[in-house]
Amino acid sequence: MQLAVLDLAGTTMADDGLVLAGLRAGLRAAGVRVDGPCYPALDRQARATMDRPVMTVLGELLDGDMYRARRAHSAFADHLHAALDAGRVRPVPGAAQTLDALRDAGLSVALTCGFDPELRDRLVSALGFAERADMVLSPADVDGRGLPEPDLLHAAARRAGTGPTQVAVAGDATADIDAAVRAGAGLAVGVRGGAHGEPRLRAAGADAVIDSVADLPALLGLPS
Q: Where does the signal peptide begin and end (predicted)?
């Protein structure tokens, strides 16, 4: 492997329900009653589509009403910015050491997410990942085509000067695994404890499933 592409929220950044709470804040801002009869179905849909571009998820939750989706997206971003300001964003234990181990072994490291660039960059900086990653990508870097489309992975491989078969992908959601399979990545690794459980990650095509991103160096045969 020459490049490791790691998901941000839920894989290297501890989610702690933060993204789902942000989606709820967005839906409230768009006039959806989170205690109303329609909300349980929307909540299930949100959980099923986590790690896709946030605007795409909100647009689908709001039946394609992009005016309301943009208002919801603004509230979502405000919610996460407030969490940053309050110091409620933290890395997954061992994530920083994993990034260091990958780079020490000669791999390039890319972080990906479905957030807008301003929020993405603030999160990466607060987590202490800015100096540990060679690149940080989100849908805005590939004409809005986020996960499960393979565009983010192809862009990361191009920037690293390598081919898809030399890329290892790790993520906690089926969208990460779907993108890895569609991109022809050499290794697709599911991470337990995030958006989706092991059965769904395996069904999506994960080559391996690990308990934490901290276990990735050992899986690759690298010093931890």
A: none
The alpha carbon of 76 is separated from its chain's Cα centroid by a whole number of angstroms, namely 15
Output the CA angle 213-218-222, nearest 5 degrees: 115
Residue ranges of alpha helices (H) inside the chain are 18-29, 39-48, 54-61, 66-85, 95-104, 117-126, 151-160, 174-183, 198-204, 216-219
**Residue 37 neighbours by CB under 8 Å, 6+ apart:** none
pLDDT for position 71: 96
- What whole-number distance in Å separates Cα of residue 34 and Cα of residue 27? 8
Helix (H) or strand (E) holding 115: none
Q: How far apart are CA 89 and CA 172, in angstroms?
A: 17
Q: Residue 110's pLDDT is what?
A: 98
3-class secondary structure, 191: strand
* Band of residue 224 on the pLDDT scale cut at 50, 70, 90: low
pLDDT value at residue 80: 94
Mean pLDDT of all residues in 44-54: 76
